[in-house]
Design goal:
Layout: H1 4-13, H2 29-32, H3 38-52, E1 65-68, E2 72-73, H4 82-97, E3 101-103, E4 111-114, E5 118-121, E6 135-146, E7 149-157, E8 164-173, H5 176-181, H6 202-207
Organism: Desulfocapsa sulfexigens (strain DSM 10523 / SB164P1)
Protein name: Putative integral membrane protein
InterPro entries: FlgO_dom (IPR041215)
Length: 208
Amino acid sequence: MKPLYQILLIVLLTPLLSSCSSLNCTRLETLLGADIDLINLGNKITDDLSSSAMPPLRPRHPEDAVLTSTFVDLDNLESTSQMGRLLQSHIGARLVQLGYTVKEVNLRNTMKITPADGETILSRDLSQITPEQPVQAILVGTYSINNRTLYITAKLIHPVSRNIISAQSYKLCMDDNLLAMFNLQRQTHNQDNNIDQPSESLIDKIFY
């Protein structure tokens, strides 16, 4: 039977030991780091954009859709990734949950459609967009990678004025799953191109 002080320590530490992706790339990553949930990230981006849009978006107006495009590489607006396609998908799903009509369409002369990439607005030339159905906003997004840091910017653009009506930026430390979406691996100190093995949990280190 474990000593009483160990049991009390477990009770006291448990609320503090929940994994959090915000601790990635810190000294606590091996103990308390967590994988990035792209569904939650997509929901947060959507909520942030829709709540700060000016003029506000109008939910439950099927005649005014929101057009979504795939998130693309900031250094090459015609290149995307699995992460870029997933973010578009999750944000589109969240928009629908919030009551907006979402259009993911093939627009001639406005969208570049490739099987491996997705729907990307060429050069962000919004003046060419002439959707058959009225659109109240267009979602565009870019990302940039620096070592393990991923920078994401998402914008809602008014299709007529071309004004940015909402914009949000995010900084993430990529976990192994997210790195794999870019065909990258975390490097160890001793050997390149290897992903670090999962570390022992803090509870195990303390009590076993």
